[in-house]
Amino acid sequence: MSSDRIKIVWIYPDLLATYGDQGNTIVLERRAALRGIPTETVHMRSDEPVPPDGDIYLLGGGEDRPQILAAHRLRRDGGLAAAAQRGAVVFAVCAGYQILGHEFGGEEGQPVPGLGLLDISSGRGEQRAVGEIVGDVATELNVPRITGFENHQGATRLGPNARPLARVVAGIGNGGGDGTEGAYAGHILGTYMHGPALVRNPGLADLLLRWAVGSELRPIDDSWAGRLREERLNAVLSASR
Ligand code: GLN
């Protein structure tokens, strides 16, 4: 944390914010507040410079053309890359996740350069991945099973410098044939999960907050969130049997 509060930067709500992904900002604010940690959230539209002094940067999903424009502007701006190199936390969903990689597939499948902050590359998959997804998170991240909703044409392959976020239990995820979902390296983490992901997975929200403050967090009462998660997980897993 660079000051007495966590600075959350919500990147390009005008281009990258499908399926209520903005809810991720609200959950981080709320879970920090419940522990007495102040936050400040700034919404940066795509015609504004990305501040390099944030603690947590969030990117959401987007349709193909807004995604290309967002990638172009983020590359030109340089603020997100500077923050990531300094160790800031970056959490990106779907289109935002693909943008963090070396390249992704445009609306005609043409390769579009990304930011190269995560060692992943995406292209157009054979089939659109639409539906519920469940995954078991890499053990070193200490996050319970994650659940979300996916809707993407892109398929993503991980290079040697990125680790899979999770192993797919139901759904498609990265779609590169290795049964993985999402990727992370250092404090940069991407996923195909909407939901919003941090609403449906408070453990993932707390991982980002732990990274931002650099220490463990006081536990909070998650009984309501836990019941809703149970209900969702049971519904998905019984349907996929
Ligand atoms: N346009 C991208 C794809 O289809 C991302 C979609 C999304 O963000 N939901 O792969």
From TrEMBL:
The keyword DNA repair does not apply. GO terms for molecular function: carbon-nitrogen ligase activity on lipid II; glutaminase activity. It catalyses: L-glutamine + H2O = L-glutamate + NH4(+); beta-D-GlcNAc-(1->4)-Mur2Ac(oyl-L-Ala-gamma-D-Glu-L-Lys-D-Ala-D-Ala)-di-trans,octa-cis-undecaprenyl diphosphate + L-glutamine + ATP + H2O = beta-D-GlcNAc-(1->4)-Mur2Ac(oyl-L-Ala-D-isoglutaminyl-L-Lys-D-Ala-D-Ala)-di-trans,octa-cis-undecaprenyl diphosphate + L-glutamate + ADP + phosphate + H(+). It comes from the Bacteria. The keyword Cell wall biogenesis/degradation applies. Transmembrane segments: none annotated. Signal peptide: none annotated. One of its GO terms (biological process) is cobalamin biosynthetic process. Residues 7-201 form the CobB/CobQ-like glutamine amidotransferase domain. Keywords: Cell shape, Cell wall biogenesis/degradation, Glutamine amidotransferase, Hydrolase, Ligase, Peptidoglycan synthesis. The lipid II isoglutaminyl synthase complex catalyzes the formation of alpha-D-isoglutamine in the cell wall lipid II stem peptide. The GatD subunit catalyzes the hydrolysis of glutamine to glutamate and ammonia. The resulting ammonia molecule is channeled to the active site of MurT. Forms a heterodimer with MurT. This is Lipid II isoglutaminyl synthase (glutamine-hydrolyzing) subunit GatD. The gene is gatD.
